[in-house]
Amino acid sequence: MASSSSPSSLSPPKVPTELYVTNREKLLKSLRQYLIETSRPLHGFVFLQGGEEKFRYCTDHIELFRQESYFAYLFGVTEPGFCGAIDVATGNSILFVPRLPADYAVWLGEIKPLSYFQEKYKVSMVYYTDEIVGALHKISKEVDKPLLFLLHGLNTDSSNFSNAAGFEGIEKFESDLTTLHPILTECRVLKSDLELAVVKFANDISSEAHVEVMRKIQVGMKEYQLESIFLHHTYMYGGCRHCSYTCICATGENSAVLHYGHAAAPNDRTLEDGDMALFDMGAEYNFYGSDITCSFPVNGKFTSDQSLIYNAVLDAHNAVISAMRPGVSWLDMHKLAEKIILESLKKGCIVVGNVDDMMTERLGAVFMPHGLGHLLGIDTHDPGGYLKGPKRSKEPGLRSLRTARELEEGMVITVEPGCYFIDALLDPAMENSNTSKFFNREAIGRFKGFGGVRIESDVHVTANGSNNMTNVPREVWEIEAVMAGAAWPLDKASACSRENKVNNGPSC
Amino acid sequence: MASSSSPSSLSPPKVPTELYVTNREKLLKSLRQYLIETSRPLHGFVFLQGGEEKFRYCTDHIELFRQESYFAYLFGVTEPGFCGAIDVATGNSILFVPRLPADYAVWLGEIKPLSYFQEKYKVSMVYYTDEIVGALHKISKEVDKPLLFLLHGLNTDSSNFSNAAGFEGIEKFESDLTTLHPILTECRVLKSDLELAVVKFANDISSEAHVEVMRKIQVGMKEYQLESIFLHHTYMYGGCRHCSYTCICATGENSAVLHYGHAAAPNDRTLEDGDMALFDMGAEYNFYGSDITCSFPVNGKFTSDQSLIYNAVLDAHNAVISAMRPGVSWLDMHKLAEKIILESLKKGCIVVGNVDDMMTERLGAVFMPHGLGHLLGIDTHDPGGYLKGPKRSKEPGLRSLRTARELEEGMVITVEPGCYFIDALLDPAMENSNTSKFFNREAIGRFKGFGGVRIESDVHVTANGSNNMTNVPREVWEIEAVMAGAAWPLDKASACSRENKVNNGPSC
Ligand SMILES: [Mn+2]
Ligand SMILES: [Mn+2]
């Protein structure tokens, strides 16, 4: 699809079905090991229910279907209404396909035979969903009530519980509601090479779309127009029909609203000269997501104040990525980011005093109330953040962390430090007797309405360090060059002819 | 936003809040009239619950919120979590606003005072949703159990019932579950001028986007790339964040799948030379939708077979629009379209025999299994289709009609005749002893894999006739000119220099 005139150098890759085969094998291995360790027999079925299409309210408007994430992980099924099972004894995988009415062929498309799905999803067996009881009983032979490992457990980001599968006749089985969820969730935490390749493509196309946005942004546009440019680029050239999350296209003071862009704050502000833009947008490809934030001045030129805050955040971002490797605590990485940001703010005369004292008083959470980053995969906030390691902290900032685990090889985690000027946090902190002493009120006043800066990359933890899968202009001079029309990645000439305009800020 | 280099001549209009004020007044008038006619007292509250944001499965992924349609009609509220009431006695309107937690300001945006919503939505009073019981009791003064008219009724397209509002303390009210739904639904059937202006804009921007798609389509592209072009155009230049429905971008034989484009048939085919394209796509603006289908050859030049089917459908489309006026039965319009299509197919030697006999045997439903069109408004399939007039027919084709009513001034209804070659319908019809005689099997064979043609416009029923709100190239020569690069609307020069290439097909 890419041509010399195409604004993209990418095209959607074919994702091998082996990805799901590998995911199932990994689950089987973990589950069997657990059963052996707990002296339980190696039999029963992992049984999951896929998602269903949903009507909008009472109407016949059907929302575009997106598969439930655990089901997607194990089976990769794109269609609604399926169930799936894995036989713990044999490792056989079984898909249950909805039996479609004859007029489906007229309204919704060809009714495919079971063999089509067996081939498409590389499973051992296929039946209709109305055959679940019979098929599983037949496979289990003489067992009176075969055991089903059902998926039931807490999502620590939403505080919602996953719904265990249900079907007519489920009372003819024994159910185990506790074993599967933690084991399957832990499988999802560490990505296979096949998964990493998909996350990488989602990153590639989203990175390219962010660059396209930087090129096209202009004072006078509406925020949502940049959302539209991003969505179009990732769908048109990347085949990404879904986004990982609702686009956050925040400019001016909106950039201090961490989850801006939802229906009650719908990216509808007009861009003004002098605004910072904070664009947090990531496409999803073949279920796997990306989550990328770029911050830059709408007019293409950083002011010294903008550079000051931007570089404070960039230094934190880079320091964290450099420090990441297996065994490192994510809580420590969060604190490292906070400390670097506070040091920069101190250098810029925005805060005053001893940085360690600031850390003790959790001053970092005033400027960065969210966590440093989260696991990323089939869900943007991928589950498993508190399956191992410390419990969720109660301290400001730290309690917002979606994981506090030690890093492990194979994790994909976002690194997204930020620095925001949020009245709702600054005002009480400047009143508070423990923290008021740290603020240079005049400087803080200068940043009223500034908004904030976030820099977010998707980072793969490798055996010896980490690999940043996001590829967008990050240095001030890189951003200014790209916004002025330079190609990305910068060629050597533009990289050499740059004037390094990094502003170190005033000395206090 | 439109500039000389912009591919759009449009920009999103401001929609006056009077639209919802007018809608509420209309409801009040109808409801009071009904209460008077049935000798009931003029008191109580119309009480509706707005929509809520929804998580995706167990995760914290929040789907982009779109307001429930009845609530949107009366209050125009874009934010989730509201309730609304109208005092039948005084006509006062009351909004109940969710009380947001303090940290909303950090994560989701400024917490607006009640007065902001009173001003924004031009309602008489505003309270928090936790004040519903107290506020309504206070307004009702000495009444022990004030009456609530709740919204409960059948949607005849989805067969779902709307959920009546619920809140803590609702037992302190009397509930009427039957009065409101038919009266409010009937209000939605006839559009006000303010509503028509919004539907018109949705049509304008969607028409322009369809033209953009015709210009950019090329053999070798993927169907979803045209979806992306459409979505981008309507969002970028029209501010349309929502679509009326999932885009149907069907090419080749997919164009015979009436509701193609969903997750199990996701617009992923590669376009081939010689394909017909059937693109059914409509943007939603400020809650109100559009629903437009264009059919054309992917390579920009109609073959004689393509012209034959296309013109059969276009003649039906045009004849219906010419015949539309208040008092005309929609069932008759459906039959008119069928008859014209069958006559054209006979002229083209695809069917043989007496057209009246074909009509008696419902042969039209083999080629056009869907209804001629449906009411359009805040829902794509706007409700009220069977509130008045005949019950739903049981005959093929006719039973698919979403309304069988007589046209009334103020209705907006889609006119969408189609002609498809669907094996699942043709095969049994060619076997059936009553209908087999009508088919020229050789000709039918020639159209195997052809797919189908649909032409869909959104038409406003006026006092004396109708007004087509859709503005896209419809004549074969217009489509070919636009696809070859001519501006749309065509200027006089291109219109005059046209070669009229309409092909009347072979003579039998
Ligand atoms: Mn993130
Ligand atoms: Mn339609």
TrEMBL record, chains A, B:
Keywords: Dipeptidase, Hydrolase, Manganese, Metal-binding, Metalloprotease, Protease. Its EC number is 3.4.13.9. It catalyses: Xaa-L-Pro dipeptide + H2O = an L-alpha-amino acid + L-proline. CDD domains: Prolidase. Gene3D superfamilies: Creatinase/methionine aminopeptidase superfamily, Creatinase/prolidase N-terminal domain. SMART domains: AMP_N. Its cofactor is Mn(2+). It is an enzyme of class 3 (hydrolase). Pfam families: AMP_N (PF05195), Peptidase_M24 (PF00557). Residues 15-159 form the Aminopeptidase P N-terminal domain. Homodimer. Belongs to the peptidase M24B family. Eukaryotic-type prolidase subfamily. This is Xaa-Pro dipeptidase. It comes from Hevea brasiliensis (Para rubber tree).
